[in-house]
Design goal:
single chain, 407 residues, alpha+beta, Creatine Amidinohydrolase, Chain A, domain 1, Creatine Amidinohydrolase, 6-stranded mixed sheet, 5-stranded mixed sheet, 17 strands
């Protein structure tokens, strides 16, 4: 039987053969697997109330199994179709569909180690193991078909980078203008005021984002996921320590799936930094640069590198300076159309991320030190840049903060 191939099918089958897998089994029910939805082109709003399976073998024609009352659900995909109604018929037809196939990739991670791809429920894995199937994680396949960017997508990252860098630079100046007006007394300025100001600047630049940005003053900067609101926001004063985290992507583009740009900078207002602020900033900066150098060296040498290895490089610097217990999150996350994408994260703390950092992917490098409440003054430092990779090279896509900003 002949059928038309979707853009990625041949590439998926090549990747399966290279990995020594018999096939990739997609399964869903009530959109439990957004990764599979994106790879297979299934719209999130489509009604899915019954289980379906779609199997891409390393060789040959794909196969699909759908419920009779939702029998057209996978018709946009190539392959032969079988239908079921009862659970007994589902089991029998699934076993027939997978006959002779043993090593199957699924959105699964042993021990939930890489939970970002662990979408298949334990019962389904048990069901398939009962048929004699070996279920293998699709984590590296997901990276290849979700995180690898086109040249056009990379260009959208550059547009967002230039716009956000300009908005942030002007934001630091705006804080100074608000606190030291040319005439009259300074007005009240809160974190949320600056969130609104930065957001308006991004809107003017044609960017979109999910939430934020984040402006954190003093002790709030020690909370890595602090979010100021209109109802709960601290005032910004002369003498404060300040952290700004800002991200976004092009809202309207001829390119599908524009890519985010995501950065964090820190500074002090109306004074020089204290010795502790300077020491912590330099430690974070050096940790950031150690992770960058580790990735750059691997790509220059054509050597594979996993996400955990870059995290180790940053974490060693912070631990060596005596601040290891205050670095409480991973070093970086994959960046794509989603701010936190499906590729390798720079992580050997929250997870042991053994996924390879692939060419033509984007990710953040953002180590941090966050002092706990017993420290006075309490503050946190994070220095975040983004990196892109290509065969033989890796690079930072925007400016690197070298010194604390002075406002």
């Amino acid at each position: 039987m002949s059928y038309s191939l979707p853009m990625e099918l041949e590439a998926i089958q090549d990747a399966l053969r290279n990995a020594g897998l018999d096939g990739w089994l997609f399964y869903d029910h009530h959109h439990r697997d957004p990764i599979g939805d994106r790879i297979l082109g299934i719209e999130a709003h489509v009604h899915v109330t019954r289980r379906w399976y779609y199997y891409v073998p390393a060789m040959g024609e794909p196969r699909k199994l759908v419920h009779r009352i939702e029998q057209f659900r996978l018709d946009h995909l190539p392959g032969v179709k079988e239908q079921y109604s009862s659970w007994q018929e589902l089991a029998a037809k699934l076993e027939a569909m997978l006959a002779g196939q043993r090593r199957l990739a699924m959105q699964y991670s042993a021990n939930n180690a890489i939970m970002y791809v662990s979408m298949v429920d334990a019962g389904t894995v048990e069901f398939l193991r009962g048929m004699g199937k070996e279920i293998v994680s699709s984590a590296d396949l997901v990276s290849e078909f979700e995180a690898v960017l086109t040249a056009e997508q990379i260009a959208t990252h550059a547009v967002a980078q230039q716009a956000i860098d300009a908005v942030l630079a002007e934001g630091w100046l705006e804080i100074g203008r608000r606190l030291r007006p040319a005439v009259g007394a300074p007005g009240r300025l809160t974190e949320f005021d600056m969130v609104q100001w930065l957001a308006e600047g991004m809107r003017r630049e044609g960017l979109t984002w999910e939430n934020g940005p984040n402006v954190s003053v003093g002790p709030n900067s020690a909370d890595s996921h602090y979010e100021p609101t209109a109802e709960g926001s601290s005032e910004i004063h002369e003498g404060d320590f300040l952290l700004i985290d800002i991200w976004g992507k092009v809202e309207k583009s001829s390119v599908a799936h524009a890519v985010h740009y995501d950065i964090t900078w820190t500074g002090v207002i109306g004074r020089e930094p204290s010795e502790l602020e300077q020491r912590i900033f330099e430690t974070v900066r050096d940790a950031r640069d150690a992770a960058i150098a580790r990735v750059e060296a691997a790509f220059a040498a054509g050597a594979p590198i996993c996400g955990f290895e870059a995290d180790d490089a940053a974490r060693a610097v912070i631990a060596g300076a005596g601040f290891g217990q205050y670095f409480t999150h991973r070093t970086g996350h994959n960046i794509a159309a989603e701010l936190h994408g499906s590729g390798a994260h720079l992580d050997n703390l929250e997870t042991h991320d053994v996924r390879r950092i692939l060419p033509n992917t984007c990710f953040s490098v953002e180590p941090g030190i966050y002092l706990t409440p017993e420290h006075s003054p309490q503050f946190g430092v994070r220095s975040e840049v983004n990196m892109l990779t290509a065969p033989g090279k890796a690079w930072v896509t925007g400016p690197r903060q070298r010194e604390l900003v002075r406002i």
